[in-house]
Amino acid sequence: MSEQQSVLFVCLGNICRSPMAEAVFAHMVKEKNLSTEFASIDSAGTAGYHVGEKPDSRSAATCKKHGVPVNSRARKVSKADFSKFNYILCMDESNLSDLKHMQPSGSKAVVQLFGDFDPKGERIIRDPYYGGAEGFEHNFKQVTRASEGFLKHLNLL
After folding, report:
1. Are 95 and 46 in contact (CB under 8 A)?
2. What is the 3-state secondary structure (H, E, C) of the chain?
3. d(CA 47, CA 155)
4. Cα 96 to Cα 89: distance, rounded to the nearest angstrom
5. Rounded distance between C-alpha atoms, residue 10 and residue 99, angstroms
6. Which of the four, 27, 46, 101, 156, has the lowest number of CB atoms within 10 Å?
7. Which residues pair with 45 in a beta bridge?
8. In the chain, what percentage of residues exceed pLDDT 90?
């Protein structure tokens, strides 16, 4: 058996995009009977604005509407995450730049855009915080496609 993977999803505040990505990915892993392939699936933010908070109610409602359970609390990315996780997948270029800046040299984590795995090529998962419900719905579709694309990248589908 190959090494178990560990994945951290990252956005700015860890209340909209990354907890949605974590929930959708974890749900897909469970639905496809791939749970034994993953040691850890988590999410975090590059900023600590919302540490300890539950996900944005619109993000949670969108997931719930699609039958995806959400169970996370916001936290900030730590230096230890770069050695704990195989993959740190972020939502936009600002997150990517912040993560590359804080990544310790020699860390094992592959840091890249989660949208790189979207088969439709929509690489940026935009922050829906200041918009309406349609932004959260759009994000849900993006993270669902990217989750499947990432599982294919790992040769698990």
Report:
1. yes
2. CCCCEEEEEEECCCCCHHHHHHHHHHHHHHHCCCHHHEEEEEEEECCCCCCCCCCCHHHHHHHHHCCCCCCCCCCECCCCHHHHCCEEEECCHHHHHHHHHHCCCCCCCEEEEHHHHCCCCCCCCCCCCCCCHHHHHHHHHHHHHHHHHHHHHCCCC
3. 32
4. 8
5. 9
6. 101
7. 11, 76
8. 97
Domain boundaries, the chain: 5-153
Highest CATH level, class, for 5-153? alpha beta
What tokens appear for 10 in the block?
């990252």
> What residues are labeled active site?
11, 17, 127
Sign of the torsion formed by the C-alpha atoms of 75, 79, 84 and 90: positive
| Residue type for position 116 | D
pTM recorded for the entire structure:
0.97
- Distance (Å, whole) CA 84 – CA 104: 12
At residue 3 the predicted structure's pLDDT band, cuts being 50, 70 and 90, is confident
Summary mean pLDDT of the chain: 96
pLDDT digit string, tens, across residues 16-41: 999 999 999 999 999 999 999 999 99
